Amino acid sequence: MKKILAMMLALVMALSLAACGGPAGNSPATEKPGAETSASVNEGGLPYEGHTLYVANWQGYNSDQAYCEKAFEDATGAQVEHVYFNSYDELMTTLLTGGNKTIDAVVLSNNYTQWFHDDGLISDLDASKLPNYEKIADVYKDQAPYAVDDAGSLFAVPWCSGTSSIAYNPDYVDFEIEHWSDLLDPRLKGHVMVLNGDGDSWVIGCLLAGEDSNDIENADIEKVRASLNELKGQLLGFWSTNDEQIMPWMAGDFWAGEIWSGPYSQLLHDSSTNIKLVHPEEGTVGFIDYWAIVEGTDEQDLAYEWLDWIMSAEQQTSMATGISEAYPGEYMTYTPVNAEVIEALTPEQKIDLQLDPMPTTIKLLPYIADPAVKDQWVDLYQEFVS
Question: Which of 282, 334, 333, 287 is nearest to 177 (CA)?
Fold first, then answer.
């Protein structure tokens, strides 16, 4: 519990650092993926020609964008194939039923990393094979229980962090939304959306019920159940992808609810719609997303290259700014963890990343150590989304 509280305080400090970042126009140095590779280059070719790396992630979540996927392919010679999932329970089931033979690396939120590690689905990592890990901001390194086990073994590397807060459309909502409880207003019935994710559901349910998700094992689950049932009656539906947020918003069906920073940034810059961001004083959902290598992969060296690339200043800059000179396009943005990139954020980029205004209180997706308690909360989540 003390480790988790310390991590929350550190995350607030890191986001504050980002909000006070370096002057506009200071771009961090970039490097090509594989520049610090441990693999030997094939004579006359790229190091991984003929190899295919299978990575699992949410669709549209950064790693399948050209500045990430194609840049890695062009530098290494490997082909990257994405395997998409709609929930971490689905991903866990896939790996437990043979998917570990076809998937090499996975994205996991901080409340799932240790579960996957404890079940033997992701492997311990050798930090010496990940030169860019040293470039990650200290606040994100070696965090237990999310990335390091009790024995001190590293098993996941941070990739991005951020918040999922409340957004609403003033064109349809004629009152000011300030708290999660405002989503229960009858005027919003049938026009509220939230993520289909257990950790987010638990945090939002606790915020609505006045319970502390940072101490979720001692929270009153029945009070949270009642609050989530009330919220469920307000919902248009659940979203799992960027498009599932943007499309109903643009159609005028999604008026208020939880939103990721990427879709928020895109909607913020779309003159045909309106959006306002709120960080409720009682708390904002916070997350750290990690990459890990699947236990038993036969492309371990290539998977290490992928994890190292995902933390590089080049990839993190494109992820944070949505700008890539080598691979131009329209991209969503996400909060980086590379220290150089954090320092270089401009004031405008902080707004896009939900760092201006700053959240007052961050509630990280909770990790539940007790298996019996975890099962109770998983059952509650499944009841909520069913």
Answer: 282
52 - beta bridge partners?
Answer: 79
Same domain, 250 and 381: yes
pLDDT recorded at residue 369:
87
- Find out whether the peptide bond into 347 is cis, omega within 30 degrees of 0: no
For 222, 289, 304, 306, the CA distances from 66, given in Å and listed in that order, are 45, 20, 20, 14
> What are the residues facing 371 on neighbouring strands?
none
Tens digits of per-residue pLDDT, 315-342? 999 999 999 999 999 898 899 999 999 9
Residues 184 and 227 reside in one and the same domain: yes
Distance CA 340, CA 150 (A): 30
What number is the average pLDDT over the span 362-372?
92
**Residues 268-301 pLDDT 10s:** 999 999 999 999 999 999 999 999 999 999 999 9
Whether residue 31 is contained in a domain is answered as no
**In the beta sheet, which residues pair with residue 364?**
286
Query: Are 139 and 58 in the same domain?
Result: yes
Reduced to 3 states (helix: H, G, I; strand: E, B; else coil), residue 90 is: helix
Mind listing the pLDDT tens digit for each residue in 147-170? 999 999 999 999 999 899 999 999
Average pLDDT of the chain to the nearest whole number: 89
Please give the pLDDT value at position 37.
Answer: 39
Residue 117 in contact with residue 149, Cβ under 8 Å?
yes
Distances in whole angstroms, Cα of residue 272 to Cα of each of 82, 171, 268: 32, 11, 10
